[in-house]
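Field: COMPLEX_INPUT
Field: COMPONENT_COUNT = two
Field: RESIDUE_TOTAL = 774
Field: MODE = joint
Values follow.
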Amino acid sequence: MVSKDCVAMILAGGQGSRLGALTKNVAKPAVPFGGKYRIIDFPLSNCVHSGIDTVGVLTQYQPLELNTYIGNGNPWDLDRSHGGAYVLPPYQSAKAGEWYKGTANAIYQNLSFLDGFNPNHVIILSGDHIYKMNYREMLKAHKASGAAATIAVMPVPWEEASRFGIMNVDEEGTIVEFEEKPANPKSNLASMGIYIFDYKALKRYLEDDERDPESDNDFGKNIIPTMLGNGEKMMSYKFEGYWKDVGTIQSLWEANMDLIDNPPKFDINDRQWPIYSRNMALAPHYVGKNAKIVNSTVTEGCSIYGEVNHSVIFGAVDVGEGSVVRDSVIMPGAKIGDNVTIEKCVIGADAVIESGAKVGVTETEDNKYASKYCTHGIVLVEGGATVLANSDIPKGSMIEQE
Amino acid sequence: MKTNTMGVILTSEDKIPPITDIRANAALPIAGRYRIIDFAVSNMANAGVTNIGVVTESNYSSLMDHIKSGKPWDLDRKNGGLNVLPPSLEQMSLGSIKGNIDMLAGIRDYLKRSPQTYVILSLGNMVYNIDFNDVVDKHVGSQSDVTVVYKNIKGAEDEELSRFTLLDFDADGKVSDIEVQPYYPKTTNASMELYVMEKALLESIIDECSARGDRDFVKDALVKKMLGLRIYGYEYKGYMDKIDSMKSYYRNNMKFLDKEIREELFNRNNPIYTKTKDQSPTKYGEEAVVENSFVSDGCTIDGTVINCVLARGVVVKKGATVKNSIIMQDSVIDVDVDLDHVVFDKEVYVTKGRKLIGQESYPLAISKGTRI
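Field: COMPLEX_OUTPUT
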């Protein structure tokens, strides 16, 4: 078999527990984003545009929807005869069988998959970030430097640096120190969780790490520090574009809002770098006679009869007459009745908001629906849940399915 | 599922200048993101037909580009699948393709090696959403040799009726008369140019007709054989129309603004598939005003759009007004442009401040790539 120059492994097993009811039944990478995408579309599309045609997607938590979504990889042009997209769940073997214990262990358990392609390099990606990045450029830099590993970093505001894994680098960009969430950061270059490894070095370190019973089997906590400690050449690769970890309801909401700013903070209408997704085969959207849509995105299959203001509307959503949707994210198939007011909400897929309801409008001290996940007054309605007619759901609520 | 039935779609010869100058009629964009042929192919695919041949005329490159592997219809199969069958160059250069029998004769080999027993033959450019399962079941369960699908368009004016092949039936429902686009229509039963028969019968009709120099499947084969063949009708009651003129092209696009028709043609149980383009959702700006319109993905709208059908990637800039119009893919309407009753082919660019006004009875049609 012909060897691959670079194989990608996307870590997509995380629950994303801070997304509350949104990830009750689906893994975080399968969460809808940006009107017609899911989070995993971003790393998958980046791979295929970067010329990486072999991608393993490591799933674990609630994998069913993600597995079906990825299927044979065709929407991303990853249905290949040699290579393509592979869903890699944990499996049983003759000797043992266990869950993925950590990010490094997940890759360790799939070393035989990687051996099958005998790659020169492996790029490790995370399935929960929103960004457009040409991995080929990073790979080029990695090869030129001859490093054992190259880690993508981006400058973050100094005041936020202590929330990230921070890389301290010299003038050439060589990593001299790695600090996980430092109290007094020496640099503002945060790791983006994107690593390119020389495959032979990676394999050796993963096998060593597996033998260490004390290890958390994690890239950030174990593999990277050990490699640095052993004096391996580790390079940083600086990325300057838009990148967002959508780990919380608030950051997910905000990242959606970033698409509809004028000009958008993040441009998904980029013909040079389109984001691919599995298509729902829906008709164009219909805008009714009394409808009003401003500063928003709307996609196929929607029927909009009311007002949509500064919102992201996913496919097959109905917004009834006299309804107002403001500063909100409405996920696929949600049905919004007539005379509904929705403000600063994330409405899950196929949720039903019956006529006359008010969601996210009123403010109360004593809110029985309040949730620690719903910060900044955002309301989350779980996919498939129903908000009854004329009910009043206060700001900061999380409405779950019964 | 009709695995025992194959589909044969002939692209019709109706020309609608200027929008058919560069493409076959069947490849005409309609309802924003579709092509006319999507209705026939999707309906067949939804009935479980897995072997479909699309027989083309000369202008087939856009049709081939649209169909490619057949993936959107789930018809990229090892056996059968969706096949574009271009005319033989030899036949074309001799000028010997003069009717649909000649086109069918060109695919004899394909018909012969297809293992199915029945065939659905589509000759027209129609918009409909039909359950072919039921049509084939009725055909198989009946004594008929050929089943022709029709719709009774009661109340239609003569001028409208004259666009169709009209059928008359005897007391048993057997077709007793067929008139192709008669000037004085005698009945209101409009043929949808969809026929179901045994494949072997179609093969023998093709053979007999071409041996005798006959050119037309309806006029020569069905009309002349009416006495010998048992031709029965299947009445379709949903929405249908034929796209054979700019007027009907315009009107049928506008029909998608009607909720009932839209929901009938695009229903979840019988979806219409098309090639996907992976465009981002449509973006509405600060000053966008949109009313009663059908909008595809990838558009950027900052102006006013009223009673329109917009295809993918259309740009309407600030201060521009577009009314009662059909705008195909990637056209750009610049600042302060005023448009009413226009049909734009793909990639038309209207520069700042221009005004173009057509009429409902005569929409102003602009060819692909024109810069105004």
